[in-house]
Amino acid sequence: MIKGQIRVMTYNLEAHYILWNGRPINGRAEGVKRLILSLSPDVLCLQEAELKWRHVLEKLPHYRPVDTLKNWQFTYMTTMLYNTRTMTLIKSGSIAYKHGWLKTNRRICYGVFKIKRTKEVICVISTHLTPLNKKHVEACLKTMTHQVEQLKATVTDLSHRYRCPVIIGGDFNSHNKAVNKKKEPLKSYQIYCLLKNCFTDAKQSSKGSTLDHIFYHGNIIIDDYQRLNQFKELSDHDPLYIDCHLKNTEKTND
């Protein structure tokens, strides 16, 4: 076992908004809570966590949000929970992307944590990029490119300021395949390639294409990567998680 191993999970919960074709939360809430508690992530990156979801998740034992719950107008839907038994929050913040719409959703939410078991410091980011609109593909690609640039600058700043590696989880609205099953080109692959030029993708290989990813920057070793595709009844996105540790962490007999 790795002494300082932590689990970081990312999950787009699928907001219930009708305009987004979202499903009601009530029938999914208990399943999502059971899933989170069964996986027991140390840090959980969340997207589309609107006010109703926030009220559900604040009842999870031992988990705390990195930001303050406000009202429906000012609740940031891109957020993060952390396990208070394993992680100590040092600093947190939420930054709106300068380009793109829906500032409550298109954000960089970050938390700087100390791993209680090893006293090591690590930064985790949850983010959600603008989706491609078929009627405005080039404009959306330009917006997403600006967002990747801002994300890269933020990661660099946090890494230098706290002298720690950074994990970035989220819905990047960017396919990691160049074509779909019908062999049609996927424009968002351009954005995924930009992201891969900036950060390291935690997955070594993937059988299918996904819009959600976990990247990292710095001295991190990935021990395991999982995409859970058996929970379609809970969200229109699959949860992802990694087990990882810092490069200098030693193995123990625990």
Secondary structure category: alpha+beta
What's the main sheet like? Answer: 6 strands, mixed
* CATH-level-2 architecture: 4-Layer Sandwich
CATH names the topology as Deoxyribonuclease I, Chain A
Query: Regions with pLDDT < 50 over 5+ consecutive residues?
Result: none
Percentage of β-strand residues:
25-35%
CATH class descriptor: Alpha Beta
Counted by DSSP, the helix tally is 4
The termini sit apart by 6 Å
How much is the radius of gyration in Å?
17 Å
- The helix/strand series, from N terminus to C terminus, equals EHEHEEEEEHEHEEEE
Biggest sheet, strands in spatial order? Answer: 3-4-2-1-12-11
Characterization of this structure:
The structure is a single chain. This protein has one domain (6-246): 4-Layer Sandwich (Deoxyribonuclease I, Chain A), CATH 3.60.10. The protein starts with 5 loop residues before the first strand and ends in an 8-residue tail after the last strand. The mean pLDDT is 91. Helix 3 (137-162) packs parallel to helix 4. With 254 residues, it is of the alpha+beta class. It has helices spanning 29-39, 51-57, 137-162, 189-198, and strands at 6-12, 43-47, 63-65, 79-83, 87-96, 107-115, 121-128, 166-171, 200-201, 212-217, 220-227, 240-246.
